[in-house]
Amino acid sequence: MTHRQIWLNLSGLGLLIALLGLAYWLNTGARAVPGLIDDLQNGDLQAQMLAAEGLKEIGSNARSAVPVLVTVATSDANLSLSGAAAGALPAIDLRAARQVMTAWLPKLHDPDAQIRGYAASAIGALGPVAKPAPTELVRLLSDEDIAVRERATRALGSIGLPSDIVMGGLLKALRDPEWTVRYAAVTQFSFNGFSSPESLAVLRELTKDSNQTVAGLAQSAVATAERLIQASVYSLMLSQGMNRTYTLHQLAKLGPRATDAVSGIAAVLTAEKPLERYLAACALEAIGPAAKESAPALQRALHDTDPIVREAALAALQSIESKMDQTP
Amino acid sequence: MTDSASTRRPTTFTLIVYWGCILLGLTLPLLATAGVDMVKHHQSFEQAFHQLRLHLFAPGYNLFLIAVMNAVPFILFAIFTLLHLGLAPAQDQQLAGQRRAGILMAALGLLGLGIWTHVMTLWYPDAQGALAYVFLPFVQVIVIPISYAAGRLLRYVLVREQDAEKAR
Q1: Residue contact A53–B60, C-beta within 8 A
Q2: Which among A1, A6, A53 has CB closest to B58?
Q3: Among B54, B55, B68, whose Cβ lies nearest the Cβ of A20?
Q4: Phi, psi dihedrals of residue B60, rounded to the nearest 5°
Q5: Is B74 within 8 Å of chain A by CB?
Q6: What is the value of ipTM here, to two decimals?
Q7: In this complex, do A13 and B22 lie within 8 Å of one another by their Cβ atoms?
Q8: Can you spell out the DSSP letters for A137-165?
Q9: Given B22, B60, B64, which is nearest A16 (Cβ)?
Q10: Which of A258, B30, B58, B124 has the most CB atoms in a 10 Å sphere around its CB?
Q11: Is residue A27 within 8 Å of B64, Cβ to Cβ?
Q12: Which residues, other chains included, contact B47 with Cβ-Cβ below 8 Å and sequence gap of 6+?
């Protein structure tokens, strides 16, 4: 082969690599949004679910998809799809996520049990952004319908905040007469980082549950509670930028036990993603007076561009100050 | 004319291996995915193609990135092939033959390992299955020189046996 032939073939390879790069660039990030919006509306459930996931991954650059996502998330045509659409919204637009929560909240009192269950699941899919909802969800734990109680339990676990209300609800669910509800509650202690001395005592009792599935999972939950991940680990994860959303959510659940992480959490108040700033404010609110050093950062967050973040910052400041006033 | 044919044939062989490796490296994971969908999940060709399109850039699946990752050792091998065979001295037929045998064996090794890994990962799905896609390119880079050496050795043994038979 001549050198010219070799160079020609290498150039062909270079061109192919450039084309592949272009294809990737065109199909990812904000450029993929119009296609994903089309997929979300096309009636093919699998394509719709994947589109919702894709939009969630893109985050705030997918803002143009918010109207469609809100429509899908507030529709009760398909529970999985509305859950996927609701789950995508917090990463894109906190206000829209709250709008979905507000739309579903009245349906928690719907006479149709299926609609009540749907509402609980859709609100749960919003995660910690649905922080104002747990009081209503806890009421559903007394619902006569088993599926509604189970979905309310899972929704509480997914929202996780405010931790005292959620913990109260989960403790109630642990004592539910129906095993599927108890199982849903134990799952939260086993895998979602919930723990308290009171829950540990109940979980120990549940290791002797008449239902073997619940008993087995309760053993795992007890083991998890006995080697609970410390705030310092989450603090390290936060400093290394590892899955900030999850880390901040876990720190918020820890409440005052996360005091060591205050400076790291306060630093996130200026993060680019509104969801991270919101969760940082929620975590500081949960820590309370011990987060006093974060007050200046929270004061600045009162001027945040996102109203939900501003609201969370105000709640955090109130929590720090009001609890400090109560301290002798 | 004979001279022209004798130089054209190795060039054609080189180009077939070069572009074949690049294209197969890129499409192998996609072909394996569609193939498993059709054979194991009894999907039609259209359904399998639709699944492929949906999952090409979908988070958590990203078949496009898997294809690109899979193509890396194939592309490295293709460049090696182009330079190794393309720059081989045309007069030395024995050396060229040995190199072709090595390249052919290495290409088969790469392909065989790739097909087996992709099909098995998809056929027996597992939570840790995605690790196979991460480690496969590294294993393939190791396989290239080993199978290349095996190819050359095989050719050497076969030629020696042929020569011994001729001498007899």
Answers
A1: yes
A2: A53
A3: B68
A4: 90, -15
A5: no
A6: 0.89
A7: yes
A8: HHHHTT-S-HHHHHHHHHHHHHH--SHHH
A9: B22
A10: A258
A11: yes
A12: B37
Give dist(CA A207, CA A166) in Å, integer. 22
CB of B150 within 8 Å of any CB in chain A?
no
To which residue do tokens 């806890």 refer? Answer: A138
State both tokens at A2.
Answer: 């001549």
Q: What is the pLDDT along chain A (328 residues), one digit of tens a residue?
A: 888 999 999 999 999 999 999 999 999 999 999 999 999 998 889 999 999 999 999 999 999 999 999 999 998 788 889 999 999 999 999 999 999 999 999 999 999 999 999 999 999 999 999 999 999 999 999 999 999 999 999 999 999 989 889 999 999 999 999 999 999 999 999 888 788 888 889 999 999 999 999 999 999 999 888 777 788 888 888 888 888 999 999 999 988 888 989 999 999 999 999 999 999 999 999 999 999 999 999 999 999 999 999 999 999 999 998 755 555 4
The minimal CB distance from A9 to the residues B18, B56, B65 is found for B18
**Which two tokens mark A204?**
């120990």
B86: helix, coil or strand? helix
Report how far residue B77's alpha carbon sits from residue B21's, in angstroms, rounded to the nearest whole number: 8
Residues of B in contact with A7 (CB under 8 A): none
Contact B55, A50 (CB under 8 A): yes
Q: Which residue has the tokens 């109560």?
A: A326
Say how far apart CA A214 and CA B142 lie, in whole Å.
48
Min Cα distance B161 → chain A (Å) is: 30
Nearest CA of chain B to the CA of A37: how many Å?
A: 13
Least Cα separation, residue B82 to chain A (angstroms): 7
pTM: predicted TM-score of the whole model, two decimal places: 0.83
Nearest CA-CA partner of B7 in B69, B67, B75, B85:
B85
Look up residue A327 and give its DSSP letter. -
